[in-house]
Amino acid sequence: MSRDVEEPTPHVAPSKGKAESSKSKYKRILLKLSGEALMGEHDFGIDPKVLDRMALEIGQLVGIGVQVGIVIGGGNLFRGAALNEAGMDRVTGDHMGMLATVMNALAMRDALERSNIRSRVMSAIPMSGVVEHYDRRTAIRYLTSGDVVLFSAGTGNPFFTTDSAACLRGIEVDADVVIKATKVDGVYNKDPVKHPDAVKYDQLSYDDALDQKLGVMDLTAICLVRDHNMPVRVFDMNKPGALLNMVVGGKEGTLIYRGE
Ligand SMILES: Nc1ncnc2c1ncn2[C@@H]1O[C@H](COP(=O)(O)OP(=O)(O)O)[C@@H](O)[C@H]1O
Ligand SMILES: O=c1ccn([C@@H]2O[C@H](COP(=O)(O)OP(=O)(O)O)[C@@H](O)[C@H]2O)c(=O)[nH]1
User: Fold this and answer.
1) Beta strands of the chain (E only): which ranges?
2) Which end of the chain offers a freer environment for a tag, N or C, measured as fewer CB atoms within 10 Å?
3) Interatomic CA distance for residues 61 and 115, integer angstroms
4) 9 C-alpha vs ligand 2 centroid, how far in Å?
């Protein structure tokens, strides 16, 4: 697949429906939201104030015609690896982690709909009566019609992360970019939380991210985007307005792409 990387010319594919995105650099994005960020000031669970703020920011994108797919993590509730360390079977823990992402997606849909933003939740694990089962063609139809689509339950398989799920869904629905909204404002040469002298990259290649084993995103996810030439942007979701600014072409976060 030869996906046009965002530089130097914005990639606007005519096949993605009628949405007017004259001010947006992208027609369709896949936004990965950290589960942990949903906790806000708390140690566990979901802070409704955080959801409302995110709904507002997502609404701004929808308002300028951007088609938005979202993958939410589950780290605010359960992580398979942590449950495993505490003695639980890993696969059971991962199933709990994936179910946690469904709960987060339901909470986010609720917040979006309270803000009058049409949205759908799809799950990689069938959950009849609660959410729709993921189907790529249906998801693309929803996106094209302007609905926000929340892809929940990760990839549906244990031993993966929601970063990998975000990259997978982004590639499947032919998004222009995967945007990882996280706790740090970009990718650094080492973990900036542990190393105050870490230096931030404005952009770096997939191969550099892999070679340096930069921990901001798991290596499985980076291999996937590299193989499909899907650009990834990493930015700080706690910085108000940063998401909209990035989508209209402002300088935010770090771009991971195929390089020169
Ligand atoms: N080289 C790096 N650049 C930026 N962040 C890094 C790096 N190495 C490790 N990190 C850590 O990765 C974290 C983001 O990844 P992760 O915990 O998976 O986030 P999320 O919960 O958003 O998926 C950051 O909070 C940061 O502490
Ligand atoms: O495809 C997937 C995605 C997620 N998970 C599980 O769900 C948890 C929550 O996802 P993640 O840790 O990626 O959430 P985040 O760090 O983004 O909050 C993971 O720890 C895994 O246990 C999984 O098993 N398969």
Assistant:
1) 28-33, 67-72, 119-123, 132-133, 148-152, 177-182, 203-205, 232-236, 254-257
2) C
3) 13
4) 34
Nearest CA to ligand 2 atom 17: 73
Domain ranges of the chain: 19-257
Residue 233 near residue 255, CB atoms below 8 Å: yes
Q: pTM for this one?
A: 0.93
Q: Which two tokens stand for residue 85?
A: 């360390």
Q: Which ligand is nearest to the CA of 83?
A: 2
Name the residue among 217, 224, 179 with its Cα closest to residue 29.
179
Single-letter amino acid code for the residue at 69:
G
214-234 confidence digits (pLDDT tens): 999 999 999 999 999 999 999
Pocket residues: Cβ below 6 A from ligand 2 = 34-36, 73-75, 79-81, 93-94, 97-98, 100-101, 154-155, 157-158, 160-163, 165
Residue type, 130: V
**Is residue 160 within 8 Å of residue 173, measured between CB atoms?**
no
Q: Is the CATH code 3.40.1160.10 the one for domain 19-257?
A: yes
Residue at token pair 């696969």:
91
